[in-house]
Write a structure and sequence with these properties.
The complex is a heterodimer of chains A (302) and B (299). By secondary structure, chain A is α/β, with parallel strands linked by helices. Chain A has eleven helices and twelve strands. In chain A, a hairpin with a 2-residue loop joins strand 2 and strand 3. By secondary structure, chain B is of the alpha/beta class. In chain B, strands 7-6-5-4-3-2-1-8 form an eight-stranded parallel beta sheet. Classes of the chains: A alpha/beta (302), B alpha/beta (299).
């Protein structure tokens, strides 16, 4: 009798499903708009996903702005460690990511490749954090008594419209080079495959990455890109979708505060798609003229 | 004005006050009403600098900002006042001359209030002699907690006398009072002693102004108005840096005291960074684009 009742208990076990929410300022709020959408794969719903509004975007940008200075002031070595840490956390949860990618319509082989490549990509940019500066900075010859040098500085807050088809690797490939130099990010996840982005948020949250450095939104790009492009407190926009109309809109509206706009059109599965020029893309060059003693007399300078 | 210490102080239903205050934050203020509210908030701000590192240059900068909030937008109201330490009153008075902006000065051994009454009165007279339109005094919290309410009352009355024609704001420093009952008690003492305004905080102590504390003080003002027909002003200070929160305060004032208090003669915000947030909201409403602090003058 006792055995039977135990079986009955097992049979009514209902799995507890995760609520997919946004990731803003190190917290997981629902969209302030109260709107949701249900992406489907082969007729099966992936769940109720937040349909972010322009106010969610605004809140995310406020969070990103307040986190940026602190993140940029970390040592390059520390940023490197944290990117490496994200990779470690991702490795530990790779099975969950593979399963989630499968539920979003990727086949097993591609899902495994996507996760493995994502981890490798983080390691790759972790390595660059304390090295890109040496590659891109310079001491410049000048004809006056100055020590003249140029170094890279992070731009500030970057909005990423992440890849639609590569929900994890595309997202990571876009944001890792941006945060490597000390920028903060607001990223819009794939609309049809949004689950991986939010699970990635859980990984970021446990990787010593300060809250607000990466903020993740789900929803419709068409609704948000115009507001992002007009927003004066964004410094750059990276666009990884195949939509010429939206890109044109972004480029036009970004003129008001001279936002930098980058169209990402790379095959992220190709290892050659990762390179330090993507770090350089979201940096500004600061050149310093430092007065020194007259160098012409000695015939030498820096 | 009655010049005796009240013998009875009402107690406060803390849970009720907190819930009532929370309800003001659920009102939705949009479009035209929001723009009106934002302009009203700007016009109620006491732009403040109260740092040990204040210099004449900083005070000039503050006064310039008070007169030219954001020249790109035409027809903006100016702030209500600038609030400085007594030694900068003369300078501030000169810098805002010709405008409607008042000069307020903290006095009475701000922010602790720990000094003799003679020195505090000298402090007040010095500020008034240099032309301060308003005096922000602090109450003696130590005496208050020791139960010496008569001393607190007499001190406020003496400062009020020293103010001559200047309006007196009495800072209760609610962050150090401990309970809402004490906030109510200190409010009643200050009002009875002749305060023209009661003010929550110095801005030096956390927590500074909160909505429940402000509500208790507004209710003290309301009860005094019902009893005597005399209006007293209110100034929450410290911790109000976002326009949305400022609008919530205005709703609370309107629904507790009525529209007569929605004027900078009777209600002020003690703040420094609030002005820029309100300006950014106003420009957002006009242009449709969210703004960046890069395009506004420093606080």
């Amino acid at each position: 009798m006792a055995k039977k009742s135990k079986n009955e208990t097992n049979s009514v076990r209902v799995p507890v499903n995760k609520t997919y929410k946004l990731y803003i300022g190190g917290a997981f709020p629902r969209t302030e708009s109260g709107r949701f959408y249900s992406p489907e794969v082969d007729g099966v719903s992936l769940g109720s996903i937040c349909l972010s509004s322009r106010k969610d975007l605004r809140n995310a940008i406020v969070a990103a702005r307040s986190a940026q200075a602190g993140w940029a002031s970390r040592t390059a070595y520390n940023r490197s460690q944290i990117l490496y840490r994200i990779a470690e956390m991702l490795e530990g949860r790779s099975e969950q990511f593979v399963a989630e990618l499968k539920s979003q319509g990727l086949n097993v082989a591609r899902a495994k490749k996507e996760v493995a490549s994502s981890i490798d990509r983080l390691i790759y940019y972790a390595g660059w954090c304390d090295k890109y500066q040496q590659i891109f900075s310079s001491v410049n010859p000048v004809a006056s008594s100055h020590f003249n040098f140029s170094v890279l500085e992070p731009m500030g807050v970057v909005f990423v419209v992440a890849s639609e088809d590569s929900p994890l690797l595309g997202l990571i490939s876009a944001i890792a080079p941006i945060i490597a130099s000390g920028n903060s990010v607001v990223a819009l996840a794939s609309e049809s495959k949004p689950l991986s982005a939010i699970t990635l948020a859980e990984v970021l949250h446990t990787s010593d990455l300060p809250g607000g450095v990466v903020n993740l939104l789900t929803g419709n790009a068409g609704e948000l890109v115009e507001h992002a492009a007009k927003h004066l407190d964004l410094n750059a926009i990276a666009f990884d979708r195949d939509n010429a109309e939206q890109l044109e809109l972004i480029a036009r509206e970004s003129a008001a505060n001279v936002k930098r706009v980058r169209k990402l059109c790379l095959d992220w599965t190709d290892v050659e798609s990762a390179n330090p020029y993507l770090i350089h893309d979201y940096c500004e060059v600061k050149t310093t003229w430092h007065p020194i003693e007259k160098i012409s007399a000695s015939g030498s300078g820096y | 004005m009655p010049t005796t210490l009240p013998s009875h102080f009402p107690t406060v239903d803390q849970v009720g006050v907190v819930e009532r205050a929370a309800r003001f934050t659920t009102r939705s203020i949009k479009k035209v009403a929001k723009m009106q509210g934002l302009r009203m908030v700007l016009n109620m701000i006491d732009l403040t600098t109260l740092e040990g590192m204040d210099t004449a240059g900083k005070v000039k900068h503050l006064c310039y900002k008070a007169r030219h909030l954001h020249d790109q937008v035409e027809g903006l109201p100016s702030v209500a006042a600038v609030c400085v330490y007594p030694n900068f009153v003369g300078l501030a008075k000169k810098e805002v001359s010709g405008s409607e902006i008042k000069v307020a000065s903290v006095a009475t051994a701000f922010p602790s209030g720990n000094s003799s009454l003679e020195l505090k009165l000298d402090d007040v007279r010095m500020a008034v002699d240099q032309g301060a339109d308003e005096i922000d005094m602090v109450i003696s919290r130590g005496r208050f907690h020791a139960g010496d309410t008569q001393y607190v009352f007499d001190e406020i009355a003496a400062v009020k006398e020293a103010c001559k024609t200047a309006r007196l704001k009495v800072i209760l420093e609610t962050g150090e009072l401990g309970t809402l009952d004490n906030v109510r008690k200190a409010s009643d003492i200050a009002i009875a002693a002749g305060a023209d305004f009661i003010k929550t905080s110095t801005g030096k102590i956390k927590p500074a102004a909160t909505m429940p504390v402000t509500l208790v003080m507004l209710e003290a003002i309301r009860d005094h108005f019902f009893a005597t027909g005399q209006m007293v002003g209110m100034k929450p200070a410290g911790g109000i840096s976002k326009s949305k929160l400022a609008l919530h305060y205005l709703i609370m004032v309107k629904e507790t005291l009525g529209p007569a208090w929605l004027d900078n003669h009777w209600f002020r915000f003690g703040a420094s960074s609030l002005a820029n947030d309100v300006l950014m909201q106003i420009v957002k409403q006009k242009t449709g684009a969210y703004q960046s602090a890069d395009y506004f003058s420093l606080d």
